[in-house]
Protein 1
Amino acid sequence: MMQILQDARVFREACAAARQGGRRVALVPTMGALHEGHLTLAREARRHAGFVATTVFVNPTQFGPGEDLARYPRDLEGDAEKLRGAGVDALFAPPVEAMYPEGEQTRVRVGALAEPLCGAFRPGHFEGVATVVTKLLALTGPCTALFGRKDYQQLQVIRRVVQDLWLPVEVLGVPTVREADGLAMSSRNRYLTPDERGRALALVRGLRAAAALFDAGERRAGRLREAALEQVQQGASSIDYVSVAHPRQLTVLDGDTPVGEVALVAIAARVGTTRLIDNLVLGEDTLEAP
Ligand code: PAF
């Protein structure tokens, strides 16, 4: 029977009781509007723990002014149903005041890793993510926390926080789950009109083009980037970035700079008004269906 909890203290006690009962605890933080990508995280969590906690919280501090906080899709009942099916033990869905009670003043800010790529276009976003994830880890006390690799920079930022603050948790990055035609699953895909849904494939086509060139032996960052950009331009309404970067430090590479044997290609673009992101680590990830 899955518990649905809104009170932070009660949720903390449920996780503590599971630990005291000898169960490993895993945490899957989400913002809800769950899709197969999230459920894959929950099922993977089950392989690592006897008690799986999922959180559904649309975190206001990671949205900038003019972003989609107010219209971000919310469907707690539907989410709960899906999580029950995935065998989750506890769903924590707090109101904003529970996560940010009056008087709170603390933020977690990561340095250089949070600056390029999405960091350059969404000021304060990763501070909001790092803060809420640190709070959720503190409440849950998990052995393992799982995040999707689609939010690649987020995953690296969270790994940095955990390392820098000596948090006793293993962070697992889970491969991006894609639709049959390759579109990366995202809660924001539901904003797309049928025409935009077709055009959104430009992102994965960009990744495929860069991967094909990389597989053919190309290592110049600029060439890999151009191959991706050419595809993305065909479907996107506007592009925040199409970048090739170091896969761990996230420093952006361009021109004739060689990328080495592993390189990140990361894309953020709007299709209509919907901002989509996608990425591929060349030399590490595959775009083929599993
Ligand atoms: O990836 C998300 O859904 C969110 O950024 C997260 C990690 C749940 C923090 O709010």
Protein 2
Amino acid sequence: MKLSINIDHVATLRQQRREKYPDPVSAAIICEKVGVDGIVCHLREDRRHIQDRDVFLLRDTLKTKFDLEMGASEEIIKIALQVVPDLVTLVPEKREELTTEGGLNILSQKDYLKKTISRFHEKNIPVSLFVEPDKNVIEVSKLIGCDFVELHTGVYANATTKEEIEIKLKQISEAAQFANSIGLKVNAGHGLDYTNILPIIKLNSIYEVSIGYSVITRALFVGLEKAVREMLNLVKGI
Ligand code: PXP
């Protein structure tokens, strides 16, 4: 399984003081040095963490894969088409949310998303849709032309009882197998940490996980290099 690190929260800390540091681009370089497979950041409309300058600099700097997470608004689409990341991950975006709260409502904006995906494909940019682990939604995602789905693992991560965790894990497992069976690659992310990642690794049907908060916050105590290495070793089964 591959590991991409989401560096949004390095930028969150920088924006807290509107300083020049800590620089998410420097964080990305450290993550790459440790050996991660890619870097993710989310350019939000309200620019609460990642700034336009970051995405252009990341494009110029990264040697691995650059996954630009974004809402499908015209302003951000235009920036993404200029940046040409290696992958675009479309997510729902609400100004009042603390973080992305769930998968895209694909059914209500099918035509718009289909058009948006083809605009990225014209520039040879593959597109991933962040979705709930739901067969119907995954089927429609495939129909409108996406290349990947990223399964929302937040509900699984927030589950507290053993039974609930098992149910949510089974949903992710079945959704991943279904998506693979119709030719979609499957990423997963949201709320994954050093503990709840273990059953996800065992599923063997996830191409890549995207992890931010748990790694960036652990870095405060053990340093970024060690925090990333610990997660990378888990993901790679080392
Ligand atoms: N994947 C998506 C689509 C997300 O929106 C986020 C949060 O920005 C993540 C993965 C990473 O989640 P976390 O920061 O909880 O690891």
Protein 3
Amino acid sequence: MLKPYLDMSREVSEALNSGKPVVALESTIISHGMPYPQNVETALRVEEAVREAGAVPATIAIIGGRLKAGLSPEEIEYFGKKGRDIAKASRRDLAMLLARGQDGATTVTTTMMIAHMAGIRFFATGGIGGVHRGAEISMDISADLEELAQTPVMVVCAGAKSILDLGLTLEYLETKGVPVLGFGTEELPAFYCRESGFSVDYRVDSPRELAQLFKTHEALGLTGGILVTNPIPAEYAMPKGDIDRAIEQALKECTQQGVKGKETTPFLLARVAQLTGGESLASNIQLVLNNARLAAQTALAYGALEGEKLPQ
Ligand code: PSU
Ligand code: MN
């Protein structure tokens, strides 16, 4: 239905037409998730990592009321430079931004929607939104979880930041029928840290296994997504104590300042980054690169399965 509004870059459309592996990337992480100019440098490096692994990157965004799959370096620079002046676009914002011909940075939710519309199965990001701490009062639950419940895209992330209630996030995903996989681990990673104390549903050890799972998911006609959690490489992980302290402080300020709704996550992300200095930003960049490589390898493995028969 959204197809008349979709523009694919030449590279992305040629790749999809010829069955080459493609990886979707989001733009809220550029405009709202990192400071300029590291956001632009990272977005370009992530695209490069996807290419080096043999796949085509499709960074997704909304520009002038058009849905875009595949941005030019100039467009990425534009999203990075405008930063938080670009609207953060979730599902509820799509029709309005398109009707008004405006720009929007796509979250995990809208990136999944647009990727699926374009025919892209694999998507790499940093962290997903989830059930916020204190959600039993605030009811702040990210639309990302509802999108994972209904859109068949495999999302590779580094778990979720503990600005969220990780236990409730897992409960929500279970209710919605979304499998949560750990890549090389049985423990849910918590973005900057490899440990969270929570278990994933299944441990998976190869891109091929991920590709086979997604193929089976599609063959069954299942509608929701699959969440792959890929721990940050140990050499870039941060001490849990440092991160926990920064998160507690950021959450306190968020409540004191009455920050609400779509501003909550960008506020917490920016504050945690400030409080932990450059170290958390460096970790953030590395984990996104790591996820982009895994998503690209999985897209390649999926392509290699094409000829293989599934059980009847
Ligand atoms: N978590 C991060 N980095 C991010 C986001 C979340 O560690 O950049 C972004 C993603 O785009 C995600 C969105 O989809 O925030 C979730 O926002 P909300 O919690 O308002 O649904
Ligand atoms: Mn929210």
Protein 4
Amino acid sequence: MLLTNASIATMAHDRPPYGLVEHGAIAIDNENIEWAGPEGDLPEEFRSLPAEDLDGKVVTPALMDCHTHLIYGGNRVREFEMRLEGATYEEIAQSGGGILSTVKATRAASESELVTRALPRVDRMIGEGAATIEIKSGYGLDLDTELKMLRAARRVGKARPVRIKTTFLGAHALPPEYEGRADDYIDFVCEIVLPAAHQDRIADAVDAFCDRIAFTAEQVGRVFAKATELGLPVKLHAEQLSDSGGTATAASFNALSADHLEYLGDAGIAAMSKTGMIAVLLPGAFYTLGATRLPPIEGLRAAGVPMAIATDCNPGSSPVASPLAILNMACTLFRMTPEEALAGMTRNAARALGIERESGTVEAGKHADLAIWNIDHPSELAYYLGLNALHRRVYKGRLY
Ligand code: DI6
Ligand code: FE
């Protein structure tokens, strides 16, 4: 297939901004991009491919949501109301609600139910141009339910035209049956649950939550040591509610990313830049929780730490299934530029998932996962809120 007359935001570099190619063509063979560039330079061999004239529409890499918890039972609308009445996220968590209330509902749900309830969220993301979505476990906190969540995530990838990357998040919260025995729970995660997920090949990476309502940097380090032993890449929910030093631990394990980062300090930024980690920023959680402390965007920028953004889609702190809304929030709330926001859901999201060699930009050799938009310039993607300009999506080389 050949796409012609396209404004291609290749996102391969930022000079010119967006790596923009006007009057561009993209040649696709099977599932990969064979060639992309100015139409006038199109090599002879591709000129006879069946062509689709895009009439100047903007083509970007398909969006990539690199941090979600979109598989879960129930919802947390009551906590939404409690927060409106003045309770904080931490207070709700400490009184046994929060993550643990979703754990209860997720344990009670069947695997098929979890899939069925996740699909509308996934469909919304696909409908806004996403082709890769990361999904975490972490609402099971026992052997059966953690594995059930990861299997459900894999099933979502078979039910829909989307690539799913799974992440094991067994160290998300302390389950009630381990109350007062956090170290024993970490032993259980390291010795039983994580090896089982790895054995079944249902975990592509390992995450943990380092904070005062979750686990210490030392406990996270034990989980990461086990992940490393099994050959799985790691990433971390870090410095979301307090500066707990998780980022430094993550850096010491060569983590792909540290995520949230509202309370990240200079030492954490330095550790990230030294080890080439990605900062995954989550404006949906910042927005939903009415947070006031911004992640240190300026410091990350100055240190050259690449920034990704994601929905963090989850029932508690970010009931958001709209990647486009997140592009907008990254700009309005975090003062990122529209170009940084789009890079955060394409090129840098791919780096946060460790798939930058095959995904995240419009370049020869990459997956032919593209989004075609009814707009004149890629900056418009972050500009609108509640207006979905998606025209078509290309997934694995096929037009949808
Ligand atoms: N931080 C988050 O934003 C999600 N997990 C985490 O560690 C939210 C989890 C939830 O509230 O259900
Ligand atoms: Fe999260």
